[in-house]
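Duplicate of earlier report; TetR family regulatory protein input re-posted below.
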Amino acid sequence: MSNEKSRQPDGKPRQRDAEATKARLLQAATDEFATHGIAGARIDRIAAAAKANKALVYAYFGNKEALFETVLDTHVGRLLAEVPFTADDLPGYAGRLFDYLLAHPHQLRLATWHRLEVGAGKRNPAELNDSLEHNAGLIGAAQDRGSVPTTFNPADLLVFTLALSSAWMPGSPTAMPRAVLDGHRTAVIEAVRRLVTK
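Output:
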């Protein structure tokens, strides 16, 4: 059932906050999918972690695969909203993206599970595809203005920037001392700067 109810002190049914329950389920699903992938994830563990009825997962999200898609879409949307893209300052963008991925380790884990189990060609979040196309267009426009060199085509330059920004993340960077992380961040920014230096 999709309506959660409990009893008030007077015994009357009380509607719980469905949005709060969905948020708890999404957080629990994020942790579960990031750790176990799609095949290894278990709906009963997600429901237990969220302190919700297992049936609500299916009522709100459909099946496990649809829940994973919702989780991935949610995290992609947050990244795009919180890390503004700047074609004229790709080194600065690389530094901000490095910081975001460091603070949100689930982001790349979810993307990796997606590539392994779904396949990037089968279903990418539409918002991500639109963003990649849009940002490549912004780089192309910056190249036309002369603020970004034309050594690489826009799509390649975008992919190189994204790859450099995330290069240290799979190695559990949170276990590294802050000074080491700062050094890697500086190196990422410098590498992207050299890509766009005339």
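Strands lie at 5-7, 13-15.

Merging into the original ticket.
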